[in-house]
């Protein structure tokens, strides 16, 4: 059945396959099928040029598709990794963005745990036992808690 469809569509079968892969990327996004779909479209473009040539057998088309898919994936990965740079590296890491700031202990640190208030948020802190009102400096963050030391 597939051979019949490919035979009837001729060089357009690669275009159909490429468009199906691009549509599949819209349905299940992951930014991977785009590159494979573009490889199918590239083989489709070559098929329009060489369809009647004797060397343009299905084996050559499949090999070119595999090569184009790998190349397109590597090139696409390289392009997308370059564009991930941001001017706000701590945008989704609020605790890490507070490293280096000083604050006053809102609650004393007892048994290694206490609280500080920075901006509009109360943060749980870890550090040496200190009384409330002591100035502390945030030295690191473990994601949920801030690690502090007295200034």
List the helices and strands and how they pair.
Blueprint: H1 2-9, H2 12-27, H3 33-50, H4 58-82, H5 94-97, E1 102-110, E2 113-118, E3 121-126, E4 135-141, E5 146-150
Parallel strand pairs: 3-5
Antiparallel strand pairs: 1-2, 1-4, 2-3, 4-5
| Structural class estimated from helices and strands | alpha+beta
Q: What portion of residues is helical?
A: 40-55%
Strand content: 15-25%
Number of E-type strands? 5
Could you state the order of secondary-structure elements as H and E?
A: HHHHHEEEEE
Question: Could you characterize what this model shows?
Answer:
By secondary structure, this protein is of the alpha+beta class. The chain folds into two domains: 2-82, no CATH class; 94-150, Beta Barrel (OB fold (Dihydrolipoamide Acetyltransferase, E2P)). The chain is 47% helix and 22% strand. The chain has five helices and five strands, in the order H-H-H-H-H-E-E-E-E-E. Strands 1-2-3-5-4 form a five-stranded mixed beta barrel. A hairpin with a 2-residue loop joins strand 2 and strand 3 (121-126). The longest helix has 25 residues, at 58-82. It is rod-shaped. The model has no long low-confidence stretch (mean pLDDT 88).
